Amino acid sequence: DMEVRSVVGVVECPAPAAYICDNIDSYTLGVMNGQGAHWSTWSGTIGGAEDAIVTDEQAFSNDQSILIQEGGAQDALLLMGDQSAGSWEVSWKMYVPAGATAYYNFQGSAAIGTAYIEEILFNQGGATPGTGTAGALSFSYPEDAWFDVHHAIDLDADQMILSINGVEVGMIPYTNANGDALSSVDFYSIDAANRYYIDDVVVDEVSSLDPCPSPGAIICDNIDSYDLGVMNGQGAHWSTWSGTLGTAEDAIVTDAQAFSNTQSVLIANDGVQDVMLLTGDQITGSWDLQWKMYIPTGATGFFNIQANPTIGTAFIYQAFLNQNGGAPGVGSFQQLAETFTYPEATWFDVMINVNMTTMTHSLSIDGVDVLVAAPYVANAGSGTATTFTGIDFYSIDASCEMYVDDVVFDFGIVGLSEYTQDLFQIFPNPTEGNFTVRGTENINSVVVRNILGATVAKIQTPMSQQVNIDLSGMESGMYFVEIQVGDVINVQRVIKN
User: What is the pLDDT of residues 272-293, one digit of tens each?
Assistant: First the structure.
């Protein structure tokens, strides 16, 4: 038997052997009309008003993209072969103009219209620009800018993880009473305000799903690669308050709870566990750290930010969840007046940004901002905040029981409303070694780091708009290019062949 895979514009494809890899640039402008075998329509009729439109009005790569325009007539399908098993990643670049609406859903059966998995809406009804929904989940997206849409789909477990613009939105059951196949994506012109563009479509079967919303991140840990029991050095970024591994102080790998797959880290109710998640003693730049957290009904939890390479000498704050068992579902700080809420017996998001350049930090819990650009200053009497060293998860009392899963730590992208990727170019990318960073504004500095966070190149510029970088002596792989303009830092990725 021969499997036929659809590969269009393979030069641009990040996964050249993918099931579908389509940058839209090989098609003739106008109605798709059967030019791409994996493009069809809701009715199956091609060449009419329902069909996809190939346009050069917008493009993420090269010159062309797919347009789903206003009017409610277009109903284009991306056909994915009615897959029934395995793990799949489905992604594309998307552009929604300011004020416009957009819509798509996954079809779970070859019989179109009988089994849709979930409806994803952007600016529903024109009332929420920059905000989208997927069932009960909500997310934000940038208007008038290209952003990533990524789906990690496990057809055997009937679940899908949705990520928008590099941020994990959450898990969606991939099932319908009438079918749960990976059949097609329906891009529909939902209303008179609808208008959006699709580019660089990739559909690929993978050996296992990485729930990481930021592939290539410095830390991307779903806990599932470890043996059950005491962590004991299985993860290099996991340690303890004392630095001693393999004791009662260490993290516990458990299958009692998990957000993705089957395992998580447990900090339990013995008052002994004192676990450190290490972020590498960062002294400059902007950093994003996020994890999933679960606290059973009535249980307590605790974490703090360590801000000095010597553990225990400088912490930013102490965050209590249900302090002393007296406030279920409520979080508080020993040092700050702010409080927050969290759902008990449900997985929720914790997201922290630390900007060591401006010495500020932000915190959101379950998608709600708690602290925004607060001073990154150590608690009085606890020392001096010199680094972003890590998070201390401590078993605070006998009622403590908290689970941590899907940890992601990566370079933060700050000030995107002012300094978006559109204001910078990196070319060529991929590169054989030499590449250029060009900006529409003067660049203060460029720092290049490898995937472990080590600096491999740093250039202070005399307020120039163009900087040349030479990585010819470096190993092949992904590098992070940190571009600073004033106090704002923008991070982009470059691939060295």
Answer: 999 999 999 998 888 999 999 9
Residues 6+ apart with CB under 8 A from 215: none
202 vs 382, which has greater pLDDT? 202
Helix %, strand %, coil % of the chain (to 5): 0, 50, 50
Q: How far is CA 77 from CA 39, 66, 81, 179, 337, in A?
A: 6, 12, 12, 17, 51
Higher pLDDT, 415 or 135: 135
Secondary structure (3-state) at 12 = helix
The mean per-residue pLDDT over the stretch 102-123 comes to 96
Q: Amino acid identity of 340?
A: F
pLDDT at position 9 is 38
- Prediction pTM value: 0.52
Please enumerate in sequence order all residues whose Cβ is within 8 A of that of 98, keeping only pairs 6 or more positions apart, or say none: 129, 143, 144
**Tokens 């998580």 -> residue:** 264
Q: Which tokens sit at 470? A: 């030479």
User: Do strands 75-83 and 20-22 pair parallel, antiparallel, or not at all (unpaired)?
Assistant: unpaired
Tell me 476's DSSP state.
Answer: S
The pLDDT value given to residue 168:
74
Is omega for the bond preceding 428 within 30 degrees of 0, making it cis? yes
Query: Which structure tokens are listed for 382?
Result: 């606890």
Cα distances (Å, whole numbers) of residue 135 to 122, 138, 344, 382 = 12, 8, 20, 45
CA distance 202 to 92: 6
Reply yes or no on whether the pLDDT at 220 is more than 90.
no
Which residue would you say has higher pLDDT here, 487 or 302?
Answer: 302
Structure-token match 């992604």, residue found: 91
Buried b or exposed e, range 281-299, using 16+ CB within 10 angstroms: ebebbbbbbbbbbbbbeeb
CA distances from 192 to 51, 101, 161, 197, 380 (A): 17, 9, 30, 16, 57
Dihedral-angle region of residue 190 (phi above 0 means left; psi in -120 to 50 means alpha; beta otherwise): alpha
> Which of these, 249, 293, 242, 223, lies nearest to 394 by C-alpha position?
249
Q: Map tokens 């780091």 to a residue.
A: 449
Closest CA to 12 of 254, 242, 201: 201
Q: How many Å apart are CA 444 and CA 357, to the nearest integer? A: 13
Q: Residue 417: pLDDT above 60?
A: no
